[in-house]
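Thread: sanity check for a docking pose with fe (ii) ion

Original post by kr_44:
Hi all, I'm comparing my docking run against an independent structure prediction. Below are the sequence and the ligand SMILES. Could someone generate the full complex and paste the structure tokens? I mainly care about where the ligand ends up relative to the chain.
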Amino acid sequence: MLDTLQKTFKFSETFLKVEYLENLDTFQIGGPTIVLNAGNHELSIQGHPLRPWNSSIYSAIVIANIQKIVGITLEPDLLFIKSFPYEKTLREKWTHVHELFPLAHLKQTKLWRSAQERIGQIEFNLWYAPAGTHCGIHNQHDFQELHPQIFGRGRMQKFHENDYNSLYQEVFMSPGYTHEPFYDHEGRYPWHQYYADTDCIWLATEFHRMSVAPVGNDSER
Ligand SMILES: [Fe+2]
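Reply from moderator J.T.:
Ran it for you. Here is the predicted complex with fe (ii) ion included:
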């Protein structure tokens, strides 16, 4: 019998709850909830698969045979508006990106990160950026990352060089969507950034060992 775990992440707010569930027989979902499959098996939901490290929004269902999932619930109206009404709350509690990464070009960047939670080799945290924010082109990470979108509309972008004019791919992000890995099988990244079209909140899932990171559709997970 595997140990069950059900914990609410400490960076949750009254308007945004992020819950981690492991080895549960069933989980009942009422109102709209973003479900991220954080296990390494497909999850069957109403007879349809949710692949590992994919996510979607569900309502009025029971999910059975849970290996690992993250459930994210927002105040229902927040799924349908563009302007985030609790920006002040988050900016007061969260850490500005320049305090985390003291690089000159990030000083004026409107980007804040929540506290972090760690489950095994995976770290979870939230990010907030207001509309029109370029979050900064980079190609180095100490980890591999995937991002489920929670609030607003944004884009993950790839570049040939460290230059906005060298854009070559955009992946649009809307609530409930998780992009495919941007890193390759060795964990190397192209130049990339997150761009916020509207006010945006997304969940960062950071894999601190390549062996636990998913590596794309055509690869073993
Ligand atoms: Fe990145």
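The chain has two domains: 5-76, 79-212. Hope that helps with the comparison, let us know if your pose agrees.
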